[in-house]
């Protein structure tokens, strides 16, 4: 039996009991981090839904009213949606303490790569596969959502939320 004093381990507690408590504590921390990340992803997806509404609105108006080709209309919509997304994510999802200069630069580098991915996915879907432009946009949006959450969570806002 080992006395660990301040850690709450008494003289009657065995080494294996101590290890079990430590393991449960680590598991509890992992579960807590998973829940925190899941909540953050849901917030990110919610902010993304608002930004996507802006994106799709511009896309549909430009295609239906302006008679634009769907790929550049989608690209312009994505840029506008990215501005909406930045503001919501900075303030409400990641609670960033980073300065706007650094956070915005990182965010828009990721948004730029998301724009490239979105444009490629739209071209493949519409021109390559022959999907309706809105169905192609839905697929592109889902794929870019996962990419941009992971990149923003780790790189753009990672230091701000621990």
Task: Give the SSE layout.
Elements: H1 15-64, H2 70-93, H3 100-129, H4 133-156, H5 158-161
Low-confidence stretches: none
Mean pLDDT: 85
Tally of domains: 1
Q: Name the quaternary structure.
A: single chain
Shape: elongated
Major sheet summary line: none
Ends distance: 37 Å
Strand percentage: under 5%
From N to C, what is the helix and strand string? HHHHH
The chain-level structural class is: mainly alpha
Count of helical regions: 5
Helix content: over 70%
Q: Work out the number of β strands.
A: 0
What Rg is obtained from the alpha carbons, in whole angstroms?
23 Å
What do you see in this structure?
This protein is an all-alpha fold. Helices cover 81% and strands 0% of the residues. The radius of gyration is 23 Å and the shape is elongated.
Summarize the structure.
Helix 1 (15-64) packs antiparallel against helix 2 (70-93), helix 2 (70-93) runs antiparallel to helix 3 and helix 3 (100-129) packs antiparallel against helix 4 (133-156). Helices cover 81% and strands 0% of the residues. The protein has helices spanning 15-64, 70-93, 100-129, 133-156, 158-161.
Keywords:
162 residues; mainly alpha; 81% helix
């Amino acid at each position: 039996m080992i006395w660990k004093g301040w850690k709450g381990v008494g003289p009657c507690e065995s080494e294996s009991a101590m290890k079990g408590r430590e393991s449960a504590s680590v598991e509890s921390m992992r579960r807590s981090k998973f829940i925190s990340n899941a909540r953050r992803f849901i917030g990110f997806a919610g902010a993304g839904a608002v930004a996507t509404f802006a994106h799709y609105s511009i896309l549909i108006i430009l295609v239906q009213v302006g008679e634009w080709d769907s790929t550049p209309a989608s690209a312009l919509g994505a840029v506008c949606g990215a501005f909406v997304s930045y503001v919501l994510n900075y303030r409400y999802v990641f609670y960033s303490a980073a300065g706007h200069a650094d956070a915005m630069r990182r965010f828009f580098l990721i948004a730029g790569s998301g724009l490239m991915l979105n444009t490629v996915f739209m071209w493949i879907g519409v021109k390559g596969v022959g999907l309706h432009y809105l169905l192609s946009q839905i697929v592109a949006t889902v794929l870019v959502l996962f990419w941009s959450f992971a990149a923003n969570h780790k790189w753009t806002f990672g230091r701000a939320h621990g």
